[in-house]
Write a structure and sequence with these properties.
Distance between the termini: 40 Å
CATH superfamily of the largest domain: P-loop containing nucleotide triphosphate hydrolases
Bound molecules: adenosine-5'-diphosphate, magnesium ion
């Protein structure tokens, strides 16, 4: 896009990037968001990752013009978040943590109502509604009351609702919290399709896996501050990448295995004699290949091999020196299942 072109009506032609510097929000004496910097290049997804209470929603609410920052500045597209809040509102869409649809009316009526609120003439409003129902796989459910939708359908309807005005920048605040894995995957596909069409996305999540699936870059927040940023694989690498576990057929082979790992200069591996298990941190794929080759060449009797990714708990432990504790017990279950 020609960044020097004069502004033209309609959101798509604007420079849809988000640039945030030193953003602050205080509630009473507490700085709940304490100097946050973010950059989202146009057409990319930024994952804002952090435990409950980190300040993610507060950040999103400021960037949506719902609450006023106490410090710092931000530009959304060409516009200043505070001084040009009206123009900013026309550029953005927001899907909250909890679906905010009217349960008493159908999905189709919900979308139509929003289209009319956005001043679309009747005919164009209906056309846009049909397009969105199709896009978010809601055609069959369109006439049923939204209150009868499953969790996944509700989130898709909410996402469709935030897309009625064709926003250039979309904020998704924990869009899949509480969804089953299949609905989560469906929602991820919808988000990917929006990004393919050029939408810029700020996604908050408590799940490393979600950031990994969708985000081009990740910012980790804790207690109002940015504590790490990079691609998800860079963050994983900082906590040791994957872990390869090898179980030998009997304790007597553990020493040999440990000697061979030392000989190939594997770092920080741990031997668990009781379970005949050796855990080897793997930082990149070539290390994984080397260890597997060594195992094959060694002819040691092996009874099991697996790899696991570091959990979000381990990421937070490493980055913040304290364990990550989701307040929501269901969230813990999801974390255990995912990681
Ligand atoms: N309106 C408010 N008044 C006072 N404290 C608030 C308000 N909104 C959020 N907080 C507090 O700010 C902190 C960050 O909250 P939030 O931004 O919702 O975090 P997250 O979305 O990362 O879970 C929490 O400790 C929360 O209790
Ligand atoms: Mg939140």
């Amino acid at each position: 896009m020609d960044r020097n072109a004069p502004p033209v009506a309609g959101p798509r032609v604007m420079t849809a990037a988000v640039q945030v510097e030193g953003l602050v929000k205080r509630f009473g004496e507490r700085r709940v968001v304490d100097g946050v910097d973010l950059t989202i290049p146009e057409g990319t997804v930024l994952g804002l990752l952090g435990p409950n209470g980190a300040g993610k929603t507060t950040t999103v609410r400021m960037l949506s013009t719902l609450i006023r920052p106490d410090g710092g500045r931000a530009r959304i597209g060409r516009y200043d978040l505070v001084k040009q809040a009206n123009q900013v509102r026309r550029l953005i869409g927001l899907t909250g943590q909890y679906a905010s649809v009217d349960e008493g009316i159908s999905g189709r009526e919900n979308l139509y109502m929003i289209a009319r609120l956005l001043d679309l003439p009747r005919k164009r409003a209906w056309a846009r509604v049909d397009e969105l129902l199709e896009q978010f796989d809601l055609v069959e459910a369109a006439s049923r009351p939204a209150g009868k939708y499953s969790g996944g359908m509700r989130r898709r309807l909410d996402l469709a609702a935030s897309m009625v005005g064709d926003p250039a920048v979309l904020y998704l605040d924990e869009p899949t919290t509480g969804l089953d894995p299949r609905s989560r995957n469906n929602l991820w596909d919808s988000v990917r399709a929006l990004v393919d069409e050029g939408t810029t996305v700020l996604l908050t999540t408590q799940y490393m896996e979600e950031a990994e699936a969708l985000a081009d870059s990740v910012v980790v927040m804790d207690q109002g501050r940015v504590i790490a940023s990079g691609t998800s694989s860079e963050l994983r690498a900082r906590v040791g990448g994957q872990v390869l576990r090898v179980r030998t057929a009997g304790q007597e082979h553990l020493d040999q295995l440990a000697r061979r790992l030392t000989a190939m200069r594997a770092r920080n591996f741990r031997v668990d004699a009781e379970n005949s298990l050796v855990s080897v941190p793997i930082v990149n794929e070539s290390e994984l290949t080397e260890v597997i080759h060594m195992l094959a060449a060694s002819r040691l009797p092996i009874s099991g091999v697996d790899t696991h990714l570091p959990s979000l708990d381990e990421v937070f432990l490493t980055l913040t020196d304290k364990p990550h504790r989701p307040a929501d017990p269901d969230a813990t279950v999801v974390l255990r299942r995912v990681f």
